[in-house]
């Protein structure tokens, strides 16, 4: 029998289809029926691609949305424990492990609405911060610029030229 987890812990749950990543849920209640079958009441986290709006550029690879979708599942479907950090705590992690995720939105599954409906932006692109991308602050104008780890050499060259031009302008 799978180990049950304390109420409030986040768990990875086995999907029905093989090859899919595990579902992530927060354990709300643990109960056993008269035959000692252990069931867990969970509150589901959604991945961005599972939401009505889909995955957007600013969503991190490990980003989840805490939904208002509750369900009761067999404890046997629990594959293991994971940690869903606040966005702030996630960005402070020195090493992100396979079981580390973050959440900065709550999601209403029926309507596709998010809470909060707005978040702070720091970059000139006016997009929310994606923790998978490196951000650099210009010493001259103090604006933030996103630099993707996946930049091509030519794009990185253009970025550095603009960065140096900004520095020369202000100094």
UniProtKB/TrEMBL annotation:
SMART domains: BAH. The keyword Cell membrane does not apply. Keywords: Metal-binding, Zinc, Zinc-finger. Transmembrane segments: none annotated. SUPFAM superfamilies: FYVE/PHD zinc finger. It comes from Musa troglodytarum. GO terms for molecular function: chromatin binding; zinc ion binding. This is BAH. It comes from the Eukaryota. The keyword Ligase does not apply. Residues 3-118 form the BAH domain. InterPro entries: BAH_dom, BAH_sf, Znf_FYVE_PHD, Znf_RING/FYVE/PHD. PROSITE patterns: BAH (PS51038).
């Amino acid at each position: 029998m799978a180990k049950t987890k304390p109420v409030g812990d986040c768990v990875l749950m086995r999907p029905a289809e093989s090859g899919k990543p595990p579902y992530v849920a927060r354990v709300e209640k643990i109960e056993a029926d008269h035959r000692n079958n252990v069931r867990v009441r969970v509150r589901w986290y959604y991945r961005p691609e599972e939401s009505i709006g889909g995955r957007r550029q600013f969503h991190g690879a490990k980003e989840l949305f805490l939904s208002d979708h509750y369900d009761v599942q067999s404890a046997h479907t629990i594959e293991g424990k994971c940690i869903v950090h606040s966005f702030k705590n996630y960005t402070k992690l020195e090493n992100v492990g396979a079981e580390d995720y973050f959440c900065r939105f709550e999601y209403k599954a029926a309507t596709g609405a998010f809470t909060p409906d707005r978040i702070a932006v720091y970059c000139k692109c006016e997009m929310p911060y994606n923790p998978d991308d490196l951000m650099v602050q210009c010493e001259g104008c103090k604006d933030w610029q996103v630099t993707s780890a996946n930049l091509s050499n030519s794009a990185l060259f253009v970025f550095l030229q603009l960065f140096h031009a900004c520095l020369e302008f202000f100094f």
